[in-house]
């Protein structure tokens, strides 16, 4: 660590746009956020028109009671995963790509994790941008590519400046979105009997409970695995639980179940027009802002993965702000020309690869504990361990097996199947002593790379 500090002190500081946001270091305790700021960040993730659409889709094929059970199952699964992984991120102040260096995968293995996460998240950023552009174009006119560019530029500009600005934006958007939605929904349901809607039979083809739970839990599982990107800014473990649970309650039980009622009302999953048509231009603006607030996490998480990947593979210390610009421009342009929608099958495949990462993190950090000791020893000093394992071959084998289970086994919930398989295999093999790291990498290996000063001194806008 000493040589790293000397290199940092002598290396010229490179000026770059935006904030690096502790992309390759722990978030210091004094730079973390209070309860209410973090709560609004969590609640902002629930403010999505797509969640109403998901609720309506389930409502078309299920009774209100069965839909409630499906959302309960999905919410419980997600909350367990978010809390187990998010708490590790909060304790260590590290995002998922960096956490995996000492928790299950080793330095080189973390590059593979970073690559999968980065490609998946920036891909979904582009896909959601395309969906938004098409939706707004159908509602208010204008070419969809124009709206794709508008949304992409807005989100990229926000994410460049990091977590602090994203938190500030959440304080503005979250109350506006839910206030507008509440007014629209109450206005729509005011002339209908709530009891009749709750007791009405599903208007469409029946959806099995397992299928509905898969859509609910599987759809946000990637977000659960990368929750340390947010929780590393939390101050207390109790905050992680309360905030994530509040987000689940709002997202699943309020937004989702209202979507079920709307699905029963219009007998269709196409309910977004209810919110937008009753709120006019103001509604479109708020939905644009809420879309940016949710999709910003895709771009943010992808940028952190790319920074870790490049440092490990190419020995280059990139600034997160610059990476954000490159990813944002690429994702925006691809969404504007309509290419991203052709990659949804590939992105869904990557989505099955990500849950096992969470299973391995939880197993190593909370059960096996064979590699996390260096994190324990450096946590109070808020520094990184001087060394990390280079490879953990057995973890990669477990990852492959768990992916195959999630991909090819037809029963249950695929995302949960792959996560549980990875967790159980890692626990069993780890406790038997069969999971062993090979090689040792030092942080000094990275001390010569450009932008090392940014590793030690974070721009003022970071946090």
Describe the structure.
The structure is a single chain. With 463 residues, the chain is an all-alpha fold. 71% of the residues lie in helices and 2% in strands. It has helices at 2-10, 35-44, 49-61, 64-92, 96-102, 106-140, 144-160, 163-189, 194-199, 209-219, 221-225, 228-231, 237-266, 272-277, 280-314, 320-336, 344-353, 355-368, 373-378, 393-408, 414-431, 452-456, and strands spanning 387-391, 438-442. A two-stranded antiparallel sheet has the order 1-2. The protein is globular. It starts with a helix and ends in a 7-residue tail after the last helix. Residues 1-14 and 447-463 have low confidence and may be disordered.
Descriptive key words:
463 residues; mainly alpha; two-stranded antiparallel sheet; 22 helices; 2 strands; 71% helix; disordered N terminus
Radius of gyration: 22 Å
Poorly predicted regions are 1-14, 447-463
Q: Level of helix content?
A: over 70%
In the sheet with the most strands, the strands line up as 1-2
DSSP strand content: under 5%
| Mean pLDDT level | 85
Give the overall shape, derived from the CA principal axes: globular
**How many strand units?**
2
Written as H for each helix and E for each strand, in order along the chain, the element string is HHHHHHHHHHHHHHHHHHHEHHEH
Q: What is the CA-CA span between the terminal residues?
A: 24 Å
- Main sheet properties: 2 strands, antiparallel
Q: How many alpha or pi helices?
A: 22
Derived from helix and strand composition plus strand pairing, the structural class reads: mainly alpha
């Amino acid at each position: 660590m000493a040589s790293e500090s000397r290199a940092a002190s002598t290396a010229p500081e490179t000026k770059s746009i935006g904030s690096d946001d502790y992309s390759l270091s722990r978030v210091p305790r004094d730079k973390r956020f209070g309860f209410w700021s973090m709560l609004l960040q969590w609640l902002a993730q629930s403010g999505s028109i797509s969640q109403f659409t998901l609720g309506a889709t389930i409502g078309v094929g299920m009774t209100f009671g069965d839909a409630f059970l499906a959302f309960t199952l999905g919410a419980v699964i997600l909350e367990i995963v978010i809390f187990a992984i998010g708490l590790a991120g909060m304790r260590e102040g590290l995002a998922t790509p960096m956490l995996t260096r000492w928790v299950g995968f080793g330095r080189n293995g973390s590059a593979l994790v970073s690559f999968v996460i980065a490609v998946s998240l920036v891909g979904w950023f582009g896909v959601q941008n395309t969906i938004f552009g098409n939706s707004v174009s159908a509602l208010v006119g204008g070419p969809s590519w124009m709206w794709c560019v508008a949304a992409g530029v807005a989100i990229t500009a926000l994410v460049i400046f990091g977590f602090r600005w994203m938190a500030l934006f959440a304080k503005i958007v979250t109350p506006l979105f839910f206030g507008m939605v509440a007014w629209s929904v109450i206005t729509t349901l005011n002339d209908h009997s709530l009891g009749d809607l709750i007791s009405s039979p599903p208007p469409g083809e029946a959806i099995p409970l397992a299928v509905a739970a898969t859509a609910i839990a599987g759809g946000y599982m990637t977000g659960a695995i990368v929750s340390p990107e947010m929780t590393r800014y939390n101050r207390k473990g109790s905050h992680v639980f309360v905030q994530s649970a509040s987000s689940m309650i709002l997202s699943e039980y309020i937004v989702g179940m209202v979507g079920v009622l709307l699905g029963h009302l219009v007998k269709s999953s196409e309910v977004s027009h209810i919110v937008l048509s009753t709120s006019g231009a103001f509604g479109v603006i708020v939905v644009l802002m809420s879309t940016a607030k949710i999709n910003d996490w895709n771009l943010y998480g992808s940028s952190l993965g790319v920074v870790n990947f490049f440092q490990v593979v190419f020995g280059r210390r990139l600034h997160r702000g610059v990476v954000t610009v490159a990813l944002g421009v690429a994702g925006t342009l691809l969404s504007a020309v309509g290419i991203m929608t052709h990659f949804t099958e590939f992105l869904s495949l990557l989505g099955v690869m990500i849950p096992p990462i969470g299973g391995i993190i939880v197993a190593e950090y909370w059960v096996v504990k064979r590699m996390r000791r260096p994190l324990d020893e450096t946590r109070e000093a808020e520094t990184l361990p001087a060394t990390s394992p280079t490879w953990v071959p057995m973890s990669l084998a477990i990852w492959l097996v768990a992916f195959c289970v999630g991909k090819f086994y037809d029963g249950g919930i695929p995302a949960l199947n792959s996560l549980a398989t990875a967790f159980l295999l890692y626990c069993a093999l780890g406790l038997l002593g069969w999971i062993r790291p090979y090689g040792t990498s030092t942080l000094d290996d990275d001390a010569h790379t450009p932008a090392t000063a940014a590793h030690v001194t974070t721009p003022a806008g970071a946090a």
